[in-house]
Amino acid sequence: MPDFQTDYTDEAEFSAGQAARVSGLNPILQRHYRQRGLLPEREGASHARFKIADVMRMTIMAAFSDSKISTKATAAFSLKASVVATAKLLAMDGAVDIDAETPEAEAYERERLQSYARVFKTRYIFLPLPQSDDAPGTNEGWERETLADLADLVGQDGSFHGVLIDLNALAALVYSRVTLPLQTHVVTLRRADGGAE
Fold first, then answer.
1. What CA–CA distance (Å, rounded) separates 51 from 54?
2. CB-based contact 19:58 (threshold 8 Å)
3. What CA–CA distance (Å, rounded) separates 115 from 145?
4. How many Cα atoms occupy the beta-carbon half-sphere of 93 within 13 Å?
5. Among 16-20, 150-154, 160-164, 192-196, where is mean pLDDT lowest?
6. Distance between CA atoms of 23 and 103, rounded to whole angstroms?
7. Is the torsion defined by CA of 72, 77, 83, 86 positive or negative?
8. Residue 112 in contact with residue 118, Cβ under 8 Å?
9. Looking at residues 89-107, what average pLDDT do you find?
10. For the whole model, what pTM was predicted?
C-alpha cells in the first residue's frame, strides 16, 4: 500500500441534455425526479448537472418510466443497481482518463478502480415488487453472481413478480452511449502525514 492517498478534485459532469441522450430519461422527468428527491439538486447551480452514477440511475429510471412499477420501487432499485453498475463501468478499458501527478499515482488509481469493481461480484440484481407503494412487501433486492440460484426467488405459486437486471449489460449499455474517456479523476498525492507531495 503506498504512503499516499488520492484526493478527487474534479469529476465528469453531464448537463440535463447530455444525461437525456445517454440515459433516455428526458429533462422533464429528470426535473420531476429531482423535485421528488430521487435525483440530486446541485446547490447554487443554475442548470442541472449530473455525475456518471446519476446517469446510470437515470438509465434504469427511463426503462421503468412507462411501466407500472411504482416510483418508490424504482427509486430503491435504481439506487442499488446504479452503484454496482457504475463501479463496473469505471473499471472498463478506456472509460476513465486519470490526470495524475505521477505514473505511480495513476497506476494506483487504476488498480483502485479495478479492485472496487471486483468487490461487487454481483452480476444480477432482482427486486421483488409489491403491487403498489402502500402494499405489504419488500423493496429490498437480492443480488446474484449467476442465474443458477433463482429458484428461491420464485413464489410457491410459480410466479416471479419483480425485476431482474444484468448489471454487466447495463454498464456496457451506458459505456456504449457516453463519450469516453470520462475526465473523471484529478489526483493529488498526499503523504501519510497529510502533507502534499
1. 5
2. yes
3. 17
4. 0
5. 192-196
6. 33
7. negative
8. no
9. 84
10. 0.78
**DSSP codes joined into one string, 140-189:** --EEESSSTTGGGGS-TTS---EEEEEHHHHHHHHHHHS-SSEEEEEEEE
- Of 9, 24, 10, nearest to 178 by C-alpha is 24
Q: How many residues does the chain have?
A: 197
Q: Contacts by 109-113 with C-beta closer than 8 Å and gap 24+?
A: 109/6, 109/185, 109/187, 112/6, 113/87
What are the pLDDT digits (tens) for 44-82?
667 888 989 999 999 999 988 877 778 888 888 898 899
Exposure pattern of 16-44 as b/e (b: 16+ CB <10 Å)? bebbbebbbbbeebbebbbeeebbbeeee
101-160 confidence digits (pLDDT tens): 788 888 888 888 888 888 888 888 887 766 445 544 454 556 777 776 666 667 677 777
| Spatial distance between the Cα atoms of 172 and 48, rounded to a whole number of angstroms | 25
Burial class from Cβ neighbours inside 10 Å (0-12, 13-18, 19+) for residue 161 reads middle
